[in-house]
């Protein structure tokens, strides 16, 4: 046994495996092969002279020694994160990484300049939540599920949906009742979130929803497709205030319905916490203004 410290790469791998208790998921997060994950853990166990993981069960488990090692590592890892963030802040512009649903990106892009003006010199990376990404994301906006709550997320805003289309499209099609929408080209997402089913049910229509004429796997393009006159889309009302105020979109029938789940926001305690908290507070204010704008629009 020597006083030489174990490999930091091995420790990073162990921390990731201990979090997910799955070699495959750890390999995706660290962007290496499963065999590389297994090899790193074996090397770390040899360096420490103890077994960290119990592989005899169907689900990977930490041994008692692994649990104790993880508990002892956490304060040091937090200090390492803080030292790294402090050093980076001195030599480069602060970076804020935001993961959000694609449907929220276009709305954020029209406003993110306001946040940057409040924090001159910062850099922002905007990622799509749900895709493989680095665990170093500072802020994650995602459905407020039970898993998100266990991770420490808080509710951000409830989702309400209503149909929207371009003014030109509405002028070309006579709509006198909600059922008229059944005969018009509908826009939906891939995979479908069944929002049209929920909306027609809220409108009191029991007929089968027709197959949409246009389906997009990029949720961020749904509003754009409606603006281009491709049909009628379902929009999240708190994101549509600006589009309606500017005359780019209209609601052909004034019925909105709740569409679960609520969106939540999670701040990574190991990331740029100060800047992430500032962004979360700013986002709360922007969403409040967006809802007010829509509610006061004729």
What report would you give on this structure?
With 298 residues, this protein is an alpha/beta fold. It has 3 domains: 8-88, Winged helix-like DNA-binding domain superfamily/Winged helix DNA-binding domain (Arc Repressor Mutant, subunit A, Orthogonal Bundle), CATH 1.10.10.10; 94-158 and 264-284, D-Maltodextrin-Binding Protein, domain 2 (3-Layer(aba) Sandwich); 160-258, 3-Layer(aba) Sandwich (D-Maltodextrin-Binding Protein, domain 2), CATH 3.40.190.10. The protein contains 12 helices and 12 strands. The strands form 4 sheets. A 5-stranded mixed β-sheet has the order 4-3-5-12-6. The protein has a 3-stranded antiparallel β-sheet with strand order 10-7-11. Strand 8 (187-189), helix 9 (195-202) and strand 9 (214-216) form a beta-alpha-beta unit. Helix 1 (8-20) packs across helix 3. The N and C termini lie far apart (76 Å).
Structural class: alpha/beta
Rg, Å, rounded: 24 Å
Count, helices: 12
Oligomer: single chain
Proportion of beta-strand residues: 15-25%
| CATH topology-level fold name of the largest domain | D-Maltodextrin-Binding Protein, domain 2
The side-by-side strand order for the widest beta sheet comes to 4-3-5-12-6
Shape: elongated
CATH class of the largest domain: Alpha Beta
In short:
The chain is α/β, with parallel strands linked by helices and 298 residues long. The protein has helices at residues 8-20, 23-30, 34-48, 64-91, 102-109, 112-118, 146-151, 167-172, 195-202, 222-227, 237-245, 273-296, and strands spanning 53-54, 61-62, 95-100, 123-128, 139-143, 154-157, 160-164, 187-189, 214-216, 233-236, 257-258, 263-267. The chain has three domains: 8-88, Orthogonal Bundle (Arc Repressor Mutant, subunit A), CATH 1.10.10.10; 94-158 and 264-284, Periplasmic binding protein-like II (D-Maltodextrin-Binding Protein, domain 2), CATH 3.40.190; 160-258, Periplasmic binding protein-like II (D-Maltodextrin-Binding Protein, domain 2).
């Amino acid at each position: 046994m020597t006083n030489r410290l174990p490999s930091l790469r091995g420790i990073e791998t162990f921390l990731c495996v201990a979090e997910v208790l799955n070699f495959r998921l750890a390999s995706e997060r660290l962007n290496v092969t499963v065999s590389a994950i297994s090899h790193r853990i074996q090397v770390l166990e040899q360096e420490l002279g103890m077994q960290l993981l119990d592989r005899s069960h169907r689900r990977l488990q930490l041994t008692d020694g692994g649990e104790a090692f993880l508990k002892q590592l956490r304060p040091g890892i937090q200090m390492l994160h803080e030292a790294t963030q402090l050093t980076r802040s001195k030599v480069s512009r602060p970076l804020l990484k935001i993961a959000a649903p694609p449907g929220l990106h276009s709305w954020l892009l029209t406003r993110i300049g306001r946040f940057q003006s409040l924090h001159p010199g910062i850099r922002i990376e905007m990622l799509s939540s749900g895709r493989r990404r680095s665990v170093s994301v500072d802020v994650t906006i995602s459905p407020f599920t039970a898993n998100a709550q266990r991770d420490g997320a808080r509710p951000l805003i409830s989702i309400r949906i209503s149909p929207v289309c371009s003014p030109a499209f509405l002028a070309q099609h006579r709509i006198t009742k909600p059922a008229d929408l059944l005969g018009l080209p509908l826009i939906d997402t891939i995979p479908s979130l069944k929002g049209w089913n929920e909306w027609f049910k809220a409108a009191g229509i029991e007929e089968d929803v027709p197959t949409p004429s246009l389906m997009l796997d990029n949720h961020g393009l749904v509003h754009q497709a409606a603006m281009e006159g491709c049909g009628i889309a379902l929009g999240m009302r708190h994101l549509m205030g600006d589009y309606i105020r500017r005359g780019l979109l209209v609601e052909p029938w004034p019925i909105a319905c709740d569409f679960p789940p609520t969106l939540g926001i999670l701040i990574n305690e190991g990331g740029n916490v100060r800047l992430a908290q500032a962004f979360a507070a700013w986002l709360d204010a922007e969403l409040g203004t967006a809802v007010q704008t829509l509610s006061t629009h004729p």
